[in-house]
Amino acid sequence: MCIGRAPNDLRSVYILDWGLCRQYVNSTTGKPHRPRVRAGFRGTPRYASANALNDIDQGRVDDMWSWFFGIIELTVGVLPWDSDQNAPNEM
């Protein structure tokens, strides 16, 4: 995660993680790709959106959920499900 540095960019937040990315827009048509019927899980379960955990194709909103979970953990120190002992087994 990056935050803008220039005076006109201070309120901008940039999410950077190219390891698990794919093109959102078709370069030929300029339109978003159709969602996959089933998308296998990728990522870190503790920060994953409901879509990711349910093998539903992820989009930009899922990136925002992951960012939100990270901000909660940085601010509060824990995530609400950190005490759930069954969480790793329920994946």
TrEMBL record:
SUPFAM superfamilies per record: Protein kinase-like (PK-like) (SSF56112)
GO molecular function: ATP binding; protein kinase activity
PROSITE patterns, A to Z: PROTEIN_KINASE_DOM (PS50011)
Gene3D superfamilies for the chain: Transferase(Phosphotransferase) domain 1 (1.10.510.10)
Domain Protein kinase: 1-91
InterPro entries recorded: CK1_Ser-Thr_kinase, Kinase-like_dom_sf, Prot_kinase_dom
PANTHER family attached to this UniProt entry: CASEIN KINASE-RELATED
Protein name: Protein kinase domain-containing protein
Organism encoding this protein: Romanomermis culicivorax
Phylogenetic classification of the source organism: Eukaryota, Metazoa, Ecdysozoa, Nematoda, Enoplea
